[in-house]
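Our collaborator T.R. sent over the components below with a one-line note: 'Predict the complex.' Nothing else. No constraints on interfaces, no templates requested, no preferences about which chain binds where. So this is a plain run: every listed entity goes in together, and whatever single assembly comes back becomes the starting point for the next discussion.
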Amino acid sequence: MAFVDYYKILEVDKNATEKDIKNAYRKLARKYHPDLNPNDPEANRKFQEINEANEVLTDPEKRKKYDQYGENWQHADAYEQARQQQQQSRTYSGYSGSEPGSGGFNFESFGNEGGDFSDFFQSMFGGAGGGGGRRQARYRGQDYNAELQLTLQEAATTHKQTLTVNGKSIRITIPAGVENGQTIKISGHGAPGANGGPNGDLYITFLIADDLRFKRNGSDLIATTKIDLYTAVLGGEITVDTLTGQVKLKVKPETQNNTKVKLKGKGFPVYKKDGEFGDLYLTFDVQLPTNLTEQQKDLFKQLANS
Amino acid sequence: MMQTENLTEAQVFCGYHQVEYAFVQDLANAGLVEITIVNQTHYISQNQLPDLERMIRLHQDLNINVAGIEAITHLLRRLQRTQQEVQALRNKLRIYE
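Returned assembly:
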């Protein structure tokens, strides 16, 4: 367990006044506050650090202990003894940073249990903040993030899936047309709140695996289909795959290689728009014949010379 | 008569979060929150609560005033849109990979 330099974290020197610390803390908190840095784990980690530093340096008792022992904190067995004695005489009520409205931070509001204070803090000061005597604050529970892998075919159909999140089964409906990387929120399925606070939310991010047949562009699908030279030259009818099955497609005579055709409404379902579909864009890949017989070669020569 | 099942009474919400109703009113005046009045009681729709809670945290934790919250909210929305756009472009890029 490494020593944590709280002064360095808050970028103040050891003689900093309470006001200096408060200002430094607020400045850094404005930079790293999780509400200002959504989906940024690094900012969240940094915010935890400065929150912990603030917890220690703005509490005269804790700061005194910290300054007194500093890097020799490991020998401060007396801390633990004193803390236990204190705990016997008061009820631990959970630290709120400060009274709401007074400008303090509710660390736990962002889904971090008190136990997320560093091991160093836990070892030196015991639980996550010694807020004995302070008013109990209600905290919203932690938000959970989960990833769900889907095939392209699954993402094309509204269906239900059962997920297990922290030992609890949750049945969710996945609407057809979800995008790769799209996140949906399931309210109230995060961690339970503390002191009567509301539950956190569950955020599910969909990861849609690549499909061998189709590439997706929003609600349109893109695919390549092979046609033989004779169909390309003379025209004809071929069978092509779509997401919902095979369809027959007419090929015009003299179709060039890489010609694109659009199959209207045969693409991907549009998210949350029942009955609306994108289009399927097919590119023809004209296959030249191989292993020609002498007679066939002669016929091609005749064509070439005609 | 208007139903209130998806609405939370503003006073109850303010009591829960220990915030003055005037603050919520200021947010409403700035167009950040919509207050619904039913039979002279002020309500907030439940789908606005996560955003409103975030604004309260910004106010209480960072001492940011309503004008600041307004600016931050616009920027966060723009950030969210940009992130969605980046994700859409990444998905598009996969077509050519």
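Summary for T.R.: Residues 88-115, 129-136 of chain A have pLDDT under 50 and may be disordered.
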